[in-house]
Every structure is written in structure tokens, then in C-alpha cells.
Design a protein that fits this description.
Layout lengths: L1 E10 L3 H14 L4 E2 L15 E7 L2 E10 L2 H14 L1 H4 L5 E7 L4 H11 L11 E4 L2 E6 L7 E6 L4 H47 L8 H48 L7 H98 L1 H6 L2 H26 L6 H20 L4
Parallel strand pairs: 2-3, 5-8
Antiparallel strand pairs: 1-4, 1-5, 3-4, 6-7, 7-8
């Protein structure tokens, strides 16, 4: 007699799918016996199909065991099981494993199962895993389609109803994270290569002769590209780090499961099972180092672009300073010219006031004019003309809003009064 085993793995929170799977199994095996969870049974005493349930967060497992007369009956049974669960294979089931228990030539029965299930027959190597003292021949790891085939020489209750499905669940969980990590890593590698090319283009670019606005637009474009690239690298580093940590945790759980108990997996088997996951973790660690270095390169690139901005601004400041100096020189020249004109205007004003003042004095008061000697007349006319010009400028400054001119005004008015008193007093001499 040969026993056919099937283990169907699915998320523990998919209650609707679990009910549908149980209904499909019940419709196929009318006289199905449901074993309570945790109950052990002697496999040699099984005379009809039985189902059992194993939970191991976050996965759940529905197991089937059914006795058949010979290997031909086993092939038909497994083929019918696969056909029965076909609608759920892609939408609900995370994995499924079929096993032939009590076969003498395991490689031969696995080859027959491959043909019966239309599996990939290019795999000629059937790895042998040793659980305790029991050697298990396996075909397929469920990497792509979630299907695996096994052959057991003897029926061991602890191994088939507990240890093996628990290892499969831990292995399937690790496998799912492995696939996710592999896909993420492939995408990140492509993005990393594109970002490296982008960084090289920015670092080796030069500011060709152009207008200031065109140069600023080019620098802004480079800075935006570097900022976005830095953000992508940071996000990818975080995503890959979380994925690698998740995969490492699943590896630890799987390693712990296959080491525990009397049915622990031997060292060669452990190495065979864990090698792909360890390799993926190593690849992720190497890529994390590359992403960290690339992020530092992008940060340096942003500093380079910032240096271009500083150079451009320094040129602008230099040009601005030169223009300011030119304006200041022009202002000084205009100020000197204005001062020259002001002095000339004051001199002309002084001469005019002195000339007309002298004539006016002579015509209005000829007696007083003749009494004062010529040098006195010169002094008085000079004081009068100079004081008049000075008062004119003081009044102009007051109109412009200048303050603190009171003392100057008093002195100027006093001088004017002195001149007027001297001129008027000359009549009475």
C-alpha cells in the first residue's frame, strides 16, 4: 500500500478561501475523515482519506492523506487533487506539496509524477534531504509555480503530520520574501545604474557661455535632478534594508525550525535549503553598501552644483561691484563738476551784488558815500556782497530741510546789520 499526501498552504486570514478549499476536498472524498488539530494517528491504520489542519503564523496548512493500492493509483490520485484545486492555485494557494509515501524507488515515482502533472522535466537532479534518519527525495522547490513533489520511503507520523509541513510553511514564507527581495533588488539595480549615469552627466557638465538666466536654469535643472536622485537612493536603501531584514528574520525562523526536534534536517540538507536565501541576503548587503556610497556621491554632486552657484554669484557680485564703482566715480565727477559750477556761480553772484550794491549806495546816499574813504567803502561792499551770497545759500539749505543753521543765520544777519548801520551812520558824520 502507498500513501498519497498533499499539503496546501495559504494565508491564515483567508477564511473564505479555506472554506472553499475544504468544500472541494469534501466533494471529492465523500467519506473524508477530519482529524482534530494536534491529534496523532497511526498512518499504517489509515484506510480512507483523512484531512488535518496545521497553523503556523502567518500561514495555514490543510493536509490530505489517502491510501492507494499501487503507484498507478497514486498518480491518478495526485492528478485528481491537482485538478481539484486548480481554480485556487493562482488566486488563493501560496504553495502545494504532493508526496508519495512508502515507495521503493523514489526517483522513479517522482519522474512519473512530473509527467502526470506536466511539470518541468528538465530537472534531472533530485536532491535528498535527511530528516532525522529518514531520507526524503524532493523535486522542485516551488520557486515559480508553488508546486513541489516529494517521496518518503517510510510513513512517519511525526514527520508527515507535523514536522515536514511546518518546515514547508517556514520555507514557503522565506521563499515569498526571497522572491520579493529578488524582484526589488533587480529593479533597484536598474535604477542605480541610471542614477550613476545621471550623476556622471551632471558632474562632467560645464556652464557653456550663455546668458545668466540660461545658466541659472541649467544649474536649477541639475540640482533638481540630483535632489530627486538622492531621494530615490534614500528610499531604495530603506526599502532594500527592510526587505533584507525581513528575509533575514524568515531565514532565522526557518533555520530554527529545521534544527529542532528529532526530525531535524541534517547539515547538508540545511545548507542546500538555506543557501539561496543566504546568497540573496549577501547580495542585498552588497547592494546596500553601493547605495550608501552612491548616496554620498550624490550629496557630493549637490555640493559641486552648489559650488557652481557660488561661482556664478561671485561673478555677479564682482560685476555688480564694478558697476557700483563706475557709478560712484561718475557721481564723484558730477559732484566735482557741480562744486566747480557752484563756486563759479557764487563768484558771479558776489561780483554782481558788490557792483550793484556799490552803485546803489553811491546814488542813494552820495554824502555818506563820499565821507567814507575808498578802503572803507571796499570793506563794507565786500562784507555786504559776501554776506548776501552767504545768506542766500543758508536760505536754500533751510528750504532743503537742513537743520542746525540758527547760529550761522544769527552771525550772517548780525554782519548785515553792522554793514547797514555803518552805511546809514556815515551820513551823520
Amino acid at each position: 500500500m502507498v500513501l498519497g499526501f498533499a499539503w496546501y498552504f495559504f494565508p491564515e486570514d483567508e477564511t473564505e478561501g479555506a472554506v472553499k478549499l475544504k468544500e472541494l476536498v469534501g466533494s471529492y472524498h465523500r467519506d473524508l475523515i477530519e482529524l482534530p488539530e494536534g491529534q496523532t494517528v497511526q498512518l499504517d491504520s489509515i484506510s480512507r482519506a483523512c484531512t488535518f489542519r496545521i497553523q503556523s503564523q502567518p500561514l495555514d496548512c490543510l493536509g490530505l492523506v489517502c491510501p492507494v493500492q499501487d503507484q498507478a493509483g497514486l498518480l491518478d490520485l495526485v492528478r485528481d487533487w491537482e485538478k481539484m484545486t486548480g481554480p485556487l492555485a493562482d488566486t488563493f494557494l501560496l504553495g502545494r506539496t504532493y508526496a508519495a509515501v512508502g515507495v521503493e524507488v523514489p526517483q522513479k515515482i517522482l519522474t512519473s509524477l512530473q509527467i502526470a502533472l506536466a511539470c518541468d522535466q528538465t530537472v534531472e537532479h533530485f536532491p535528498e534531504l535527511k530528516y532525522g534518519s529518514i531520507s526524503v527525495v524532493r523535486q522542485g522547490w516551488g520557486w515559480d509555480d508553488g508546486l513541489a513533489l516529494c517521496a518518503f520511503p517510510v510513513a512517519d507520523t511525526v514527520l508527515l503530520l507535523n514536522k515536514f509541513p511546518r518546515v514547508e510553511m517556514k520555507w514557503l514564507r522565506a521563499q515569498l520574501f526571497w522572491q520579493l527581495s529578488r524582484d526589488q533588488r533587480a529593479t533597484i539595480v536598474l535604477e542605480h545604474e541610471d542614477l550613476e549615469r545621471q550623476l556622471s552627466g551632471v558632474l562632467f557638465s560645464t556652464l557653456v557661455p550663455a546668458t545668466r538666466n540660461e545658466q541659472l536654469e541649467a544649474i536649477e535643472k541639475d540640482m533638481n535632478a540630483l535632489s530627486q536622485g538622492y531621494g530615490v537612493l534614500t528610499a531604495n536603501h530603506r526599502l532594500l534594508s527592510l526587505g533584507a531584514k525581513r528575509l533575514s528574520n524568515s531565514l532565522s525562523l526557518l533555520d530554527k525550525e529545521i534544527r529542532e526536534g528529532e526530525m531535524s534536517l541534517d547539515l547538508p540538507g540545511r545548507e542546500l535549503v538555506l543557501a539561496p536565501i543566504r546568497e540573496e541576503i549577501s547580495l542585498c548587503d552588497n547592494l546596500l553598501i553601493e547605495l550608501r556610497d552612491a548616496r554620498q556621491d550624490y550629496q557630493a554632486g549637490m555640493e559641486v552644483v552648489g559650488g557652481k552657484v557660488e561661482i556664478l554669484l561671485s561673478h555677479e557680485n564682482l560685476n555688480l561691484q564694478q558697476r557700483v564703482m563706475e557709478v560712484m566715480e561718475l557721481g564723484n565727477a558730477m559732484q566735482r563738476q557741480s562744486l566747480t559750477l557752484q563756486v563759479a556761480a557764487s563768484l558771479v553772484e558776489f561780483i554782481i551784488v558788490a557792483y550793484y550794491g556799490l552803485n546803489l549806495w553811491k546814488n542813494l546816499d552820495p554824502t555818506g558815500f563820499s565821507v567814507i574813504p575808498e578802503w572803507g567803502r571796499l570793506v563794507l561792499v565786500t562784507l555786504f556782497a559776501g554776506d548776501a551770497v552767504y545768506l542766500t545759500h543758508l536760505v536754500a539749505e533751510l528750504n532743503q530741510g537742513h537743520k542746525d543753521l540758527r547760529n550761522k543765520m544769527i552771525v550772517a544777519v548780525a554782519v548785515a546789520c553792522f554793514v547797514m548801520i555803518a552805511i546809514i551812520g556815515a551820513r551823520f558824520l
